[in-house]
Design a protein that fits this description.
Oligomer: single chain
Distance between the termini: 80 Å
Length: about 475
Amino acid sequence: MHFLDDEGGQYGGDVWPSELAAENLAPELDLKTRESCQMRRLLSRMEQYDRTTWLMQFESFLQRALCVVRSDRTARRFGVLHADMQGFQVLNRIYGERAGNSMLRAFAAFLRRREEYVCGSRIFADQFVILFTIPNGYSLQAITDKLVAEGEQFLAEKRRLHPRSHLAFVGGVCPVEGRPESLHALVSRADQARRSLKPTLRSRGGVFTEAMEICRLQRQSLYEDVTKALEHGGVFFLLQPQVDIATGAVVGAEALARMRTPDGKLIMPGNFVPLLEESGDITGLDFNIYGQVCLYQQARQRAGKTLLPISVNISREHFRNPAFVDDLHALVQSYGLEPRWLGLEITESVFVKNLEEISESVRQLKQYGYSIWLDDFGAGYSSLNVLKDVPFDVIKIDRGLLGSGAIAPTNKSIINSVVRLAEDLNMGVLCEGVENASQREFLSRLGNLQAQGFLYARPMSPEDFTALLEGD
């Protein structure tokens, strides 16, 4: 195994640090002492490598790569590549973990064989990072194109062994300039270049640019604003009425999360939701909104006012927590509310993975008495298996099927089919994004539907919603 090489030995470009080499122990040491020392060194060396690919662990890679860059006296140019195999998870699922590990080892060996390779690491799963040299006469883009072309050729050969998978080489590259104090930032920039490439079934490569750096700084600034809003009570909700199309009566509302920083800056969901999903803080935001909505409903209940159901969004991250269902129910009960006054909206994309496990959580929520809504139906991923396996109460047709003007004939047919299907399954239907009278007229002919959109009302404060209900 390559981690046993002597000092100065190489394995596909990895040059072992001198402190890992076997020492010439003093002759007076007995054999037992020598064997013990060698074993400790062997175990220490093994800990620095990934057991699947025998590439360096990430921290060891960072140290080794930085040492190479800072000690270089040959004026070589270096770059960092952050690469992955698009479609690897499908291969692993179809062909099994053994085949997946074999592919990871083969991919690691492919990277080592590159003439530009210096050292590398498997960060996790199918995510790899390497330090490479940029040959004379090559631009950064040119060497990126070369690496991607070689990666595609390698995967094309492997596809014959795994014909049901669709693998692609996707990588981002960042140059190493000067004598950096750390390579952490450069690896992140290479990763940012990789992430800038939309998911694809063909191999692609991207080079980190100043525009990406500006975007990163803007994103970092936005995240700081979001964090401040979370920490200083800047989270609040608006209510958008939901109406019965036939009568025009308000029958409920959706709670929409908003954020305001301490200095008064308003942050819209399209900006803060992706950040919080990425950081995992979205569950905290959700429970903050759940508590505020429950407090609003409790105040109306104590005042003897008529309650209408208010729906809230359930993020996919909640279903990673086995205690989520009981935590949510305990919160609602603490406000003395019946579950029927809180509708739970779940986007259909949540069910793409772990349908069976999520369905079980939904059934538990139904048993407690909550109304379950399938949100954004028709927005992208759609499967009749979801409707077959999950006991929804309401299907929310995505605004994209209505459009901004007259509804397209094809979309009319789709909406009509969804309504008929919902009727057969004993589910209600609500159409989002109703903006004009022609859309309302078409929907009114389909049956007993509900609607939500600017034609009826824009999102409003809880106080304005109360005034709307009471006719003030």
